[in-house]
Amino acid sequence: MDEQIKQIAERLIGLREALELTPEEVAKTCHISVEEYNRIESGQVDISVSVLHQIAKAYGVELTTLMFGDEPKMNSYFITRKNKGVAVERVKAYKYQSLAAGFAQRKCNPFMVTVHPKPEDEPIYRNSHPGQEFNYVVSGRMMIEINGKQLILEEGDSIYFDSQQPHGMKALDGEKVCFLAVIL
């Protein structure tokens, strides 16, 4: 996990340097402090998908390129076989598996997300990013919080929401939850 975060940080530094941007400029794009952005580039802290999404959109790169390091090459179709999507575990509790990493110039980013249960007293990590998001629960149950409202989703349930609203989720019943997340 830590190695993957460091690799993402290195890709961010490379992108910023290639575009001749300062950390201050990228931080402003992401609506975060320069100090927070510098911690991200250090590879010592987790990097939220929302920050990566903002950087990808703002600077015209693929989100999965920042996350996984590979440039998409396909433009007609791309197949991801069962359990074969490029994966990254940003933090121990979350695993993102890209379902379209090889397709260039995607209009959306589909991921299979696995969230492991955490202690009840541990706070929910919330983020926000431009666009919209669709989540479909494949297995398990989860609580999703959107702008302070808590909603319970069970297997087969889905939700579509404005991802600019602060949102976060957690697995319920002491079991992991797997859901399809499509970020637009």
From TrEMBL:
Keywords: DNA-binding. Residues 12-66 form the HTH cro/C1-type domain. It comes from the Bacteria. SUPFAM superfamilies: lambda repressor-like DNA-binding domains (SSF47413), RmlC-like cupins (SSF51182). Gene3D superfamilies: Jelly Rolls, lambda repressor-like DNA-binding domains. PROSITE patterns: HTH_CROC1. This is XRE family transcriptional regulator. It comes from Parabacteroides absconsus.
